[in-house]
Amino acid sequence: MVPVNAGFTASADYLVVQFTDSSAPTTDETLTDWYWNFGDGNESSSQNPSHTYSNSGTYNVSLTVTDSGGNSDTYASSISVSAKSSCGVDPGNEQHTSMASAYKFFFPLLIALLALAVFRLTRKRQRFPNQ
């Protein structure tokens, strides 16, 4: 039996990731040390760190935990992060996608209505030039 069972979960909000330690000792020892390698050259010794990545991508993250008896275990997992677009809009957000579709439909309709109004005003002036 392995005396320590390392593990973690990760929750990403664009480039910011909250890591949560789910490690557990399998003996009467207690966990004393956590070593995180975020896969981008940065590290942490916090139990539940938050980390901000500089770029979108997939990173190999590892956590090594040590218990009070000196036993250790390492768990590794890949995580993917992505940045917001330059205008601050999430490109996968369905609300923004549906708004773009609405604009694609209504903008030509608006142009057509404006053209019709100009045509009618021009035609009215031709029939009644003094008004």
In brief:
The protein is an alpha+beta fold. It has one helix spanning 94-127, and strands spanning 4-5, 8-13, 16-21, 24-25, 31-37, 43-44, 50-52, 57-67, 72-81. The longest helix is centred in the C-terminal third of the chain and has 34 residues, at 94-127.
Treating each run of at least 4 consecutive H or I residues as one helix, how many helices?
Answer: 1
Give me the count of strands.
9
Low-confidence stretches: none
Strand order, main sheet: write it out: 6-5-8-9
Mean pLDDT: 84
Q: What attributes does this structure have?
A:
single chain; 131 residues; alpha+beta; four-stranded antiparallel sheet; three-stranded antiparallel sheet; 1 helix; 9 strands; rod-shaped
Description:
This protein has 131 residues and is of the alpha+beta class. It has one helix spanning 94-127; strands spanning 4-5, 8-13, 16-21, 24-25, 31-37, 43-44, 50-52, 57-67, 72-81. The strands form three sheets. A four-stranded antiparallel beta sheet has the order 6-5-8-9, with no helix packed on it. A three-stranded antiparallel beta sheet has the order 2-3-7, with no helix packed on it. Strand 2 and strand 3 (16-21) form a beta hairpin. The longest helix is centred in the C-terminal third of the chain and has 34 residues, at 94-127. The radius of gyration is 29 Å and the shape is rod-shaped.
